[in-house]
Design goal:
About 50% of the residues lie in helices and about 0% in strands. With about 140 residues, it is mainly alpha-helical. The protein has a domain of about 100 residues: Cytochrome Bc1 Complex, Chain D, domain 2 (Orthogonal Bundle), CATH 1.10.760. The structure holds heme C. The site of heme C has 22 residues, from helix 3, helix 4 and helix 5.
């Protein structure tokens, strides 16, 4: 029995692997002749806002879209995981977007960014400066 428990996930993994191997060929067949399909918006990293990254008063929305958008804009993996969590908590799917949350405090946002949380990797002061994080925390932290 124990062996079976070990072998079954392996078989499932092997099946996934085969699917993965077939996927690129199938995608190529579907791709339009005149170019690749459009890139989803969350994969196009928003430009970093100009100016002194260490100065207070950064544009929280712009920093968020540049530094967090790949995971936390629509379609990002952070949004996908948080949507599942919010649904399990009995909320509506739109709460998967951090920008739609009203329960986040600025301090909580800063703590998650500096220490990471489950699937979210921590970010250092090089990734996002304290001034930038302050502005993002103020932008997302609607619960005071
Ligand atoms: C590499 C992808 C990635 C990046 C970049 C990222 N996050 Fe996340 N974030 C996640 C994931 C995934 C989760 C869900 C973690 C979990 O619970 O598994 C998450 C969770 C969070 C949470 C917790 C929400 C809750 O309900 O507890 C906050 C707050 C957050 N992120 C803020 C940010 C901010 C602000 C930035 C940018 C400075 C950022 N994240 C950048 C992937 C990312």
């Amino acid at each position: 029995m124990k062996r079976l428990v070990l072998i079954l996930p392996l078989l499932a993994l092997a099946a996934c692997n085969q699917q993965g191997a077939q996927a690129p060929a199938a995608k190529q067949a579907e791709a339009p002749k005149d170019g690749p399909p459009p890139i989803p918006p969350y994969q196009l990293r928003a430009e970093q806002p100009s100016g002194n990254r260490l100065a207070a008063g950064r544009d929280g929305k712009a920093v968020f879209e540049h530094q967090c958008g790949a995971c936390h804009l629509a379609g990002g993996m952070g949004t996908n995981l948080l949507t599942k969590q919010r649904l399990l908590a009995g909320e509506t799917p739109d709460k998967g977007m951090l920008t739609n949350r009203t329960d986040l405090t600025p301090d909580y946002v800063k703590q998650v960014v500096r220490t990471g949380k489950n699937a979210m990797p921590p970010q250092t002061k090089v990734d996002i400066t304290d001034a930038e994080l302050d502005s993002v925390a103020a932008y997302l932290g609607k619960a005071k």
